[in-house]
Amino acid sequence: MPVYGVAVLAACTLAGLYAGDLIGAAMGLEANVGGVGIAMLLLIAGSNLPGRPLLPGSPAGSGVQHWSLMYIPIIVAMAARQNVAAAVSGGTMAIIAGTLAVVAGFALVPLLSRLARR
């Protein structure tokens, strides 16, 4: 049932964007802050809830799995493009903050790798 997957995807997207707008308003910004990430987390959590028959073999599970696999790369690419465009037009501080976040992420890979082996 891919339609069920679309419904879950739409609900997660709307909830994430609304939450991102609320966070932006709380920070005094007229921007969506983290809405795409929140939507992705909701989709991952919603498709892995315990006690729900969303196994990949079931029609509903196949629909959710299909759309979650399509959603994450597309939305991340769209958000990354917008973030880069905003950083380039935003000035030096935005570029430095973005670079430091990427460096910190790369630095955490060995640590997370060690934790995963345990």
Structure description:
With 118 residues, the protein is mainly alpha-helical. It has one domain. It is 81% helix and 0% strand. It has helices at 2-26, 35-47, 59-90, 92-117. It is globular, with a radius of gyration of 17 Å. The protein starts with a helix and ends with a helix.
How much of the sequence lies in strands comes to: under 5%
Question: In terms of per-residue confidence, which ranges show pLDDT below 50 for 5 or more consecutive residues?
Answer: none
Structural class: mainly alpha
The biggest beta sheet, please? none
According to DSSP, the number of beta strands is 0
Number of helices: 4
Order of helices and strands: HHHH
Q: How much is the average pLDDT?
A: 76
Q: Which oligomerization state do the chains in this entry correspond to?
A: single chain
What gap, in angstroms, lies between the N and C termini?
Answer: 38 Å
- Number of separate domains: 1
Give helix % range: over 70%
Computed CA radius of gyration, to the nearest angstrom: 17 Å
Please state the overall shape, judged from the principal axes of the Cα atoms: globular
